[in-house]
Specification:
Layout lengths: L1 H8 L6 E4 L7 H5 L17 E5 L2 E11 L2 E9 L7
Antiparallel strand pairs: 1-2, 2-3, 3-4
């Protein structure tokens, strides 16, 4: 019975987001943003990025390029041992 119950939700679409970092700006700074502006994030380029499903952190990974698109290589699932 559990397998049939799970089948009902397996095709439900969820929002998957990769977060590179974040920054806090004053509203004045936000209003001054223009094309070419650079917003510095609070994360080093070598740090892993976060993978979120419906705004819940589930994994960390490295940014990769796949056929001219960005992707993420999972290196650690939240709550588990890092992948080598």
């Amino acid at each position: 019975m559990e397998e049939k119950t799970l089948d009902v939700v397996l095709d439900v679409k969820v929002k998957v987001t990769v977060q590179l970092g974040s920054s806090q700006l004053q509203m004045r700074q936000v209003l001054e943003l223009a094309p070419g502006a650079v917003v510095q994030l609070n994360q080093q380029a070598s740090d892993p990025v976060g993978l979120y499903v419906n705004d819940k952190l589930i994994a960390y990974g490295e940014v990769v390029v796949v056929d001219d698109n960005f992707g993420i290589k999972i290196t650690e699932l939240v709550g588990s041992t890092p992948v080598s």
